[in-house]
Write a structure and sequence with these properties.
heterodimer, A: mainly beta, six-stranded mixed beta sheet, five-stranded antiparallel beta sheet, B: mainly beta, four-stranded antiparallel beta sheet
Chain lengths: 112, 115
């Protein structure tokens, strides 16, 4: 099955700086890559996703890039704000697969 | 309001005492799933269901049972809970045929402690 790894496990950034979280996946058949954000004490929520026919996708201050050859994808957060402090989970799944494999999560801390 | 509702939100129980965590969604989603979240281990899938009467094992199904008799409900059953099942549990649902075709909507979570 799919194995997803996230690095680094914890990331501290100064408010206003950029944060980048990288995930690697093992199954070359994976074609859907979502990112979920979990604030302290809350449920995970989808913030952005990308499919393998696209190399990059942006939504305001967040973007996701995909490198299929290297089998990794990254979340980019620009102009970080305190409300960006959370745990971020990446995930991957092949099309037609009914299971979404999550990484272990990255704790992002934005320092005011 | 579209939502996934789990009950109970918090539960402390003892080893061996059967318990059920209920999950209900009002979005007419076909796909439902249970995850457990443990520190340093992320979200691990326990069971999932593609539709009524269709269930399948995830990555960590041991010690759990599920059923899907109605589209909206997907209860998680711990027949004989053990301390290693102490965890934060999330139910989630998605439209269409699975998590790679639609957003996963999570419930608020159920924190279970087994003594």
């Amino acid at each position: 099955g799919e194995n997803v790894e996230q690095h680094p496990s914890t990331l501290s950034v100064q408010e206003g700086d950029s944060a980048v979280i990288k995930c690697t996946y093992s199954d070359s058949a994976s074609n859907y890559f979502p990112w979920y954000k979990q604030e302290l004490g809350k449920r995970p929520q989808l913030i952005i996703d990308i499919r393998s026919n696209v190399g990059e996708k942006k939504d305001q201050r967040i973007a996701v890039t995909l490198n299929k050859t290297a089998k990794h994808f990254s979340l980019h957060i620009t102009e970080t704000q305190p409300e960006d402090s959370a745990v971020y989970f990446c995930a991957a799944t092949p099309y037609g697969n009914n299971r979404l494999a999550f990484g272990k999560g990255n704790q992002v801390v934005v320092i005011p | 309001e579209a939502q996934v509702t789990q009950n109970p939100r918090y539960l402390i129980t003892v080893t061996g005492k059967k318990l059920t965590v209920t999950c209900s969604q009002n979005m007419n989603h076909e796909y439902m799933s249970w995850y457990r979240q443990d520190p340093g281990l992320g979200l691990r899938q326990i069971y999932y269901s593609m539709n009524v009467e269709v269930t399948d094992k995830g990555d960590v199904p041991e010690g759990y049972k599920v059923s899907r008799k109605e589209k909206r409900n997907f209860p998680l059953i711990l027949e004989s809970p053990s301390p290693n099942q102490t965890s934060l549990y999330f139910c989630a649902s998605s439209s269409r045929t699975g998590p790679n075709t639609g957003e996963l909507f999570f419930g608020e979570g159920s924190r279970l402690t087994v003594l």
